[in-house]
Amino acid sequence: MQINIGILGLGTVGCGTVEVLRRNAALISERSGCDLRVTRIATRTPDKTRPVEVDKSLISGDVDAVLNDPEIHIVAELIGGVEPARDYVLRAIAAGKSVVTANKELIAKHGAEIDAAATAAGVDFLFEGSVGGGIPIIAPLRDSLAGNRALQLMGILNGTTNYILTKMTREGLGYAEVLSEAQSLGYAETDPTADVDGWDAMYKLSILAGIAFDTPISLDDIYREGIRKISARDIEYATELGYVIKLLAIARQHPNGELEMRVHPALLPQTHPLANVNEVFNAVLISGDAVGDVMFYGRGAGMEPTGSAVVGDLVAVARRLKNGASVAHAGEKVRPNSATIRDFAEFETHFCVRMQVSDRPGVLAQIATIFGDKGVSLESIVQKKTDGDSSQSDTAEIFWMTHRTTQRAMARSLNEFNRLEVVREVSSVLRVEGE
Amino acid sequence: MQINIGILGLGTVGCGTVEVLRRNAALISERSGCDLRVTRIATRTPDKTRPVEVDKSLISGDVDAVLNDPEIHIVAELIGGVEPARDYVLRAIAAGKSVVTANKELIAKHGAEIDAAATAAGVDFLFEGSVGGGIPIIAPLRDSLAGNRALQLMGILNGTTNYILTKMTREGLGYAEVLSEAQSLGYAETDPTADVDGWDAMYKLSILAGIAFDTPISLDDIYREGIRKISARDIEYATELGYVIKLLAIARQHPNGELEMRVHPALLPQTHPLANVNEVFNAVLISGDAVGDVMFYGRGAGMEPTGSAVVGDLVAVARRLKNGASVAHAGEKVRPNSATIRDFAEFETHFCVRMQVSDRPGVLAQIATIFGDKGVSLESIVQKKTDGDSSQSDTAEIFWMTHRTTQRAMARSLNEFNRLEVVREVSSVLRVEGE
Q1: Would you name the residues of B annotated as active-site residues?
Q2: pLDDT at position B64
């Protein structure tokens, strides 16, 4: 059976998809029992030179030609961003075509709407490439792990920030320096906001959590904090104490049903399975009630890795069409957005607090008393003379690590410190996970 | 839609499957759009007390009652071993039922026959639980990664041996001591052959390689070597040089199409993604031409983890039945057992050779000359006085690490050493991977 594919967008992912389909055509046809053929490609820049071999006669600037072609079975939306991608996807679905995409922002913001449209139209809407590049995560979570109640997801979902943190750790460099190097290497965008402020990881977490917990996730319900404030000094302490610092995306369902979702940098023990996920690699650790912990690891982005995920989805739709089935997930996941969201103030973690204080007797006791009064119990303390500037030689640096405590108790402690003359500065407050 | 399931075997995996289906019934029904109901269970020991809640009225000793029940859609074969499992599976298929199993030995030995029978009968035959317990590996490899030409699989596929090697490494203990401890804890069988001699890992490798390289694998084509000969001393050297020792299962396709498949202990750099897979955990690192390296990690065995995999397969069949599709993989993978197998003598790896030699001048040069004559070039050498027994004080121990070389060249060198008076003993020969 011949399956005709229309591609919207011929950037990195579009080129990767076209290249994988071309290079492995024989293999894919043998495995799927279908001939997957790209019959039209629409791009804003039809004349641009591409890094891969593409039949020029397929390329045009005309999106409508793809959306209106009755011969096309599947549209691969590989433009990115919300509009006009959303409009194109909905039009393709309305025209009875299945849609495959790698567009995390679109799914995070409009996934429920598009899912509903696809179900109503009896077509597939698949998006494996939207999380973790080519790593199979969404399909295994939905299919192989379907027998599990998900307890927790914990992931390193953004390659750029993981590259920056890995480099800072290995070379002892500061954030700004590594960021500009990453930008010059093309690992970070000129405007790095989406990555370094955790937006990208948040979109991906919302997609995974939606599947794992069978409910649409509102982005407003995810706490988000980026890596801009992480300093070489924080990493130094973390290393000394046996930890690494990672930008983690975490979603957890509490026994009472409440969902807790957050994206933020955190200390992770060096022995934790996610601690050795370095550079641009991504990984997701899923805890299910039956399976225990399973982890998926690989390159979180890139032309061919993401192309691999898109092609996997195209094969899934092709097999479905060949086998004469209605869509795989039709009529499933009817649960509305019903989850109760745990209040941010109730989040419980270990914390690390690094602060500059007056180097004189009694200061440590004063601060420890405040922690105690607010119900924060302490696990360990490292105190050092502040390095460098001799004018600051009357300042000491203290690095506190607390036992599990709520965000509320920590915030109250920090409030007190702001009023305390001996605390010159609270330099960083970081969570600790995986213990 | 109600899907009726008949279960054969109520041991560890059977109990896990029944328990997961019972505990998460509501969730599974919501996700699959089907009511998965266990309607019959056959076991040789109907009256035995089980660690999970099972409706006793479903249990009997009568396999035929399951196989002949026209109301049953899916048979889960959870007996293990080749016969009578093979007979039951073929009869279930002949009766038009789909079959789900976790039986690696059965698939490794008769997978092609059963696949053909299932295809002819138009039913599904799924076996996610046969490799890696609950870790989704087979479905992702077949589906999400369908766009990739597989280059290599490398896995830690046996939990028992990984537990033993982890324990030996962490506590500096010998093989025999750790084995008997593992046996008393129930982590190793009274007859540990299947695990420690690499049979179990070999079965699993043949299953994965068959899918990855689209061809049935003959077990005779897999080189196999177990962990019985690994000593505390080998691990000591490995650790000192920055390596761990793991029982690896490796399948690789060379650019000329030749398959190289082997199961053996090997040194792996401590920074390798598989090096931190410890205790009873399993992991598979798959290298695809498009996706690069992806790794799947989790518990490789156990009641509920394997139950999770079986339930995932049951859900897949249920969805297929509900959606009115013909089987997912019908008409695919028609390629016969056509792969050329690389000759063992041509396998190329780094090697480590530990030997006891006469502690006198010129010995090292004599041995190095033999390596050189046979075309083996050396990467590093560690020489130590042999510890302990003073009668051996004229003996030194040398640990050689070679550059990449063929099995043939290594075997020829070892032959020469056997003839050499100054080489008292070749204590171990181990491969090095992941560099």
Answers
A1: 204
A2: 97
Paired with B348 in beta bridges are B406
Domain coordinates in residue numbering, chain A: 2-134+303-322, 138-299, 344-432
- Decide: B348 and B374 in contact? Cβ < 8 Å: no
Tell me the pTM: 0.94
Nearest CB among B148, B311, B333 relative to A147 is that of B311
Mean per-residue pLDDT for A313-322?
A: 94
Coil/strand/helix, residue B162: helix
User: Which residues in chain B are contacts of A325 at CB distance < 8 A?
Assistant: 320, 323-326
Is A230 in contact with A237 (CB distance < 8 Å)? no
- Residues A221-239 have a mean pLDDT of 96
Q: Could you tell me the two tokens for A130?
A: 């939207």
Q: What is the pLDDT of residues A370-390, one digit of tens each?
A: 999 999 999 999 887 765 555
pLDDT of A113 reads: 94
Instruction: Determine which of B21, B308, B333 to mutate to test the interface with A (most A C-beta atoms within 10 Å).
Output: B308
Task: Output b/e per residue, B32-43; b: 16+ Cβ within 10 A.
Answer: bbbebbbbbbbb
- Whether omega before B84 lies within 30 degrees of 0, making that bond cis, reads yes
> Which CATH superfamily includes the segment(s) B2-134+303-322?
NAD(P)-binding Rossmann-like Domain (3.40.50.720)
How confident is chain B (435 residues) per 10-residue block, as mean pLDDT? Answer: 97 97 96 95 95 95 97 97 97 97 97 93 96 96 96 97 97 95 90 96 97 94 96 95 97 95 97 93 98 96 95 95 72 63 94 94 93 95 71 83 96 94 95 92
DSSP state of A341: B
**Which residues in chain B are closer than 8 Å to A144, comparing Cβ atoms?**
128, 136, 139-140, 309, 312
Question: Which among A156, A138, A154, A152 has a CA at the least distance from the CA of A288?
Answer: A152
Distances (CA, A) of A322 to A54, A128, B71, B88, B120: 26, 21, 27, 30, 17
Please give the CATH topology (third level) of the domain spanning A138-299: Dihydrodipicolinate Reductase; domain 2 (3.30.360)
* CA distance to partner chain B, nearest, from residue A56 (Å): 23
- Chain B positions touching A136 (Cβ under 8 A) are 136, 140, 143-145, 294
Span A15-34, average pLDDT: 96
pLDDT at B435: 81
B391 within 8 A of B329, measured Cβ to Cβ: no
Q: Give this complex's ipTM.
A: 0.93
What span, in angstroms and rounded, lies between the C-alpha atoms of A305 and A310?
9
CATH topology of domain B344-432: Alpha-Beta Plaits (3.30.70)
Structure tokens at A22: 């071309």
The CATH number of domain B144-299 is 1.20.1250.20: no
